[in-house]
Amino acid sequence: MTEHEDQFEALLELLKESRGFDFTGYKRSSLMRRVNRRMQQLSIASYGEYIDYLQVHPDEFTTLFNTVLINVTDFFRDQDHWQHLRTEVLPTLLSNKKPTESIRVWCAGCASGEEAYSVAMVLAEELACDELRTRVKIYATDVDDEALAIARQATYGEKEVRGVPADLLDRYFEYTGQRYAVAKDLRRVVIFGRNDLVQDAPISRVDLLVCRNTLMYLNAETQARVLARFNFALNPFGVLFLGKAEMLLTHGKLFTPIDLKRRFFRTVPRGASTNSVMSGYGNGAAGGAREMFDAHRLQAEALLASPLATLVLTADGMVAGLNQRAETLFGVSQRDVGRPFLDLDASYRPVELRPYLDEMRRERRPVWIREAELPRRPGESVHLDIQLVPLVGADVGDAGTALYFTDVSRQRKLQGELEFANRQIETAYEELQSTVEELETTNEELQSTVEELETTNEELQSTNEELETMNEELQSTNDELQSINDELRDRTNQLNDANAFLESIMTSLGSAVVVVDLDLVVQVWNRGAEDLWGLRPDEAVGQHLLNLDIGVPTDGLRPLVRQALGEAGSSPEINLDAVNRRGRPIAVRVVCSPLRSSAGTPAGAIVLMDQLPAG
Asked: Between 211 and which of 108, 302, 381, 520 could a Cys-Cys bridge form, CB atoms 3.0 to 4.6 Å apart?
């Protein structure tokens, strides 16, 4: 580890010991970018210098945390994901709950509260108002206290609520003082609190856990610890809703996908085999999956240990369960639970099963297929007896189908192998030994290939998360620049208003007004001066007063201005004979007053010239 990296680790340790923020589980590349950004703002070159700065300026910790913790969120971010939650996931989840049973939701990494209130609106659309108040509890947590303070206020600007559909905005928000306030019924069901996913205990007995675009900031080891806590927090068959950059492809023992594209996952019950035969969210699966799991745990374990490869299908042809022998024989896994059976290789290898399934459903009796040959590798096949058995429930009629694959290869070849063994036993032994060695070599190569593919997949996942992190950082920076731009626009408008007001005053004065600096260079030339002497402001401003071609004798004007510039508080005046812009002789009264800066120092002079009436 380089000295640069050692200093950065020392900085993280300081944050952990002095403020209780443990960033050691976060990705170093993202953390370094955010800390470097803050150091650039302070013109600090090294992490060691920044540690010294933090120790001298304790208030800097708050600014640093606001820079590192990227609170980028929106109402209903990724609209089609939320639509799937409302139309597909929540109805299934609610159907497995008793009418009086509570519904617990945890929004982890809630930032300023938009996603927590989004969940509340979705549940409010599914439940009556009384049910929402009595049954629903939404726990929204984050490590950023300032973001939680904003979330508790529950008021948002027009920019923040642009993602809320118009009908939901009318029903669940009140417009007051150019801000949108969340309705009281929704605010009562959302409880905000501080929780560090890496250090603090998880909230338990949760039915829905929403944690979107938070895991991507953590390294792989920390992600695994947090996901184990999520698995503990969720009820059996609870749902985990992640962000679009988070896949969980390497955590199949904790979660199985419901909809991988939209990042919905079902928890694998703690203590149950990862090859669980039941799936609570398959299309067409019967309701009450949790009760079935508890009631038939022993039967499920017996099915898993069966020497017969077994697949269980729902009435509409979706895979509801499979055992270990089926995984070995057909290369399927628990990730295939919930998929259409006809999409699997097992539906047409070793034989096309669609017509036999139709026959079984039509005649409602078991169907046998004898000695179907399943090629495994060149020169090797497995012969299977396949039995399709209809499953009939006591109250649901056609409940599904069980497929049993019996390996009869041994019986088929037994007699020939025995005869061959009697004649060529020594040769057979040598060939068998060679085959075993080849299989071991092949297995090692396949294992190596699998590990390489897993490593590549994790690297791609990490890269995707890194890109998503950078995208949110850019969005945060863009919001900051937009705020600065708005402030500059306001300042410019104020300056324009002040200039317009000053111009109005100068124009309204009847006298000719000329403002000069200490070098007698004209700074202001008003409308009265233009009317009296015939010079436009663009011809006079920037020119030396005494060099202007006007009808005032410079011999009388020069000492007057010099006197105003030299004597504090002096405002001398004089009457001079002059010639106006029409060439007619006139008498003018000239008053010269000193111009001073806000600090009281001389800054120039103000010359007032009024035409005297002819006398």
From this structure: 108
